[in-house]
């Protein structure tokens, strides 16, 4: 089974309703403006970051400027948070830059991502949109469905305002 079909099967297994919309390839939040205009709900950006010992997945509202220093403090990170390399994205989540998505957690068989942080600025929207492991489509789920998916595939899931973490 290909990876995207496996994703849809997993969403089905978890009872998470979803809909997918095909579009041109987008690599940044700015490039996706035209796509977002046609899709109501919360549009995301997903960042894989690391400290000296752990990986963290930050799932933010696309327009939010993530406070990495504040997030690091809130998570008790060892040292500064920095972006994971393309090699780490590929090895851990099985995706490339521009296609990072919380759905890729299902590829992290060793659960190397320690914590997923869901931005409260994003989860107030319904639905919320993510790439289905490729950047030529967007898949919508409810915030509750997102939380259920992440809880199934991550060590820990937290909620925080990623622009101003406490």
Descriptive terms for the model:
166 residues; 28% helix; 6 helices; eight-stranded mixed sheet; 25% strand; alpha/beta; YbaK protein
Question: How would you sum up this structure, described in words?
Answer:
- The protein is α/β, with parallel strands linked by helices.
- It has one domain: YbaK protein (Alpha-Beta Complex).
- The protein is about 30% helix and about 25% strand.
- The protein contains six helices and eight strands; from the N terminus they run αβαββαβαβαββαβ.
- Strands 1, 2, 3, 4, 5, 6, 7 and 8 form an eight-stranded mixed sheet that branches.
- Pfam families: tRNA_edit.
- Its EC number is 3.1.1.-.
- Keywords: Hydrolase.
Uncertain stretches: none
At the fourth CATH level, what is the homologous superfamily? Answer: YbaK/aminoacyl-tRNA synthetase-associated domain
Count of discrete alpha- or pi-helical segments spanning 4 or more residues? 6
- Return the structural class: alpha/beta
Question: Count of DSSP E strands?
Answer: 8
Strand content: 25-35%
The name of the CATH architecture is Alpha-Beta Complex
Shape: globular
């Amino acid at each position: 089974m290909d990876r995207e079909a496996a994703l849809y099967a997993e969403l089905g297994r978890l009872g998470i309703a979803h809909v997918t919309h095909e579009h041109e390839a987008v690599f940044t939040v700015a490039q996706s403006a035209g796509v977002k205009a046609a899709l109501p709900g919360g549009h995301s950006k997903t960042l894989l970051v690391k400290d000296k010992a752990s990986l963290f997945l930050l799932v933010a509202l696309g327009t939010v400027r993530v406070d990495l220093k504040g997030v690091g403090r809130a998570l008790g990170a060892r040292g500064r948070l920095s972006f994971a390399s393309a090699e780490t994205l590929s090895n851990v989540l099985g995706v490339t830059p521009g296609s990072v998505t919380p759905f890729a957690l299902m590829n992290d068989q060793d659960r190397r991502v320690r914590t997923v942080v869901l931005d409260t600025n994003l989860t107030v929207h319904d639905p919320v949109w993510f790439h289905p492991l490729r950047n030529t489509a967007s898949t919508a789920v409810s915030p509750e469905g997102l939380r259920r998916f992440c809880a199934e595939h991550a060590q820990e899931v937290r909620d925080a305002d990623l622009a101003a973490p406490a």
